[in-house]
Amino acid sequence: MAETHEVTLIGVCDGAIGDGKRYPLLYLTNKVGGLPDVLPVISWQYPSCVLCNGILAHVVQVYCPLEASLYHRTLHLLACPNPQCSSKSESWKVLRSQCLESEIKPSPELSPSPHSPGTEAPIAATDWCDGADDWGMEDEEESACLSDTTQTQVKTTEANLEPVMRTAELDVSGRLRDLCLGEREAIQLDIPTFSPFYVSVVEETDLVEPADLHHAQNLLKEYERREGVAVAELGTCDGGGDEKYEKTRARHGDAVFSRFMKKISLCPVQILRYCWNGSPLYISEPPSNMAQMVPVCARCGSSRTFELQLMPALVSLLRSKDCRSEMAGEFGTVLVYTCRNSCWTWGSTSPVEELIFIQQDPDQKLFK
């Protein structure tokens, strides 16, 4: 067998979400903004900001089942849309929801099963490592960061998904009615809502330098000129160039930020990085006691592991769905740590809160 290695998945915006008529919005959809599409067994309640007591807005929905797990698994990230709160970790929440395929009531005419809920195997839980290209395929718009091969894989996956979606539509009318009720409820309760976008994905190793990175290159050149350092000489992020990297410090001493800029330079429009049990890409020097700041899971006592992070390019997409100018999101990067065991009690209807950590952007103007 080939030696296992970390696989980092890069998420990019892949077009605005319409009215949901072409593709029903389910928990399988990876998206930015909108209302959360929760697993059918989950009872959803909007959390509030601990600083201003305002209702948190839904930021990102990620469908992310784990290898060898029988559970569907979804993460929802929420944040306070108040500009004074959104850059603080206390004003964010990440909620993990899970359920077995057998807990999702099938349509009787489609797949009657004699198995009991505790023994029926899941049908479509996708492994993030082996099934990376199945993440986010709804929109046909080409992304500037995708190679031709990856675009073909995404379109092929979309074609393969259509029969599944047509099957789901046979038993989805009730959920669509629930969705409409949710939208009305959101309006009545004045729930803040960011404009929704689909998310597409590519493995970071598949990124190729597109022809339209002129703007990104100009940003890097400006950064090099202002800080008196050549980003290209800062070494790699894989450890091989660490010594050279440490010797080539930016004028303001922020080598971590320089490394961050180099790492995202091939795809500066990336809005999300996913690597379960991987290493986060810090935008600034993390606290020296970072390990102590990531406590064990309060439910099972196991350690937490890094799973994903939101990137600065997402900030420009977080705008109010109804054009309320005071609603915005501000951050450098948002780091998410989850229970290594992804512990869950069968039959549970409440999401599990995981850990979120915000790093502010040390130089926000580079991303404008």
From TrEMBL:
Q: Which GO terms describe its biological process?
A: apoptotic process
One cellular component GO annotation, for this chain's record?
cytoplasm
Extract the InterPro entries matched here: PDCD2-like_regulator, PDCD2_C
**Programmed cell death protein 2 C-terminal domain: residues covered:** 254-360
Please identify the protein, giving its name as recorded.
Programmed cell death protein 2
State the organism of origin.
Osmerus mordax (Rainbow smelt)
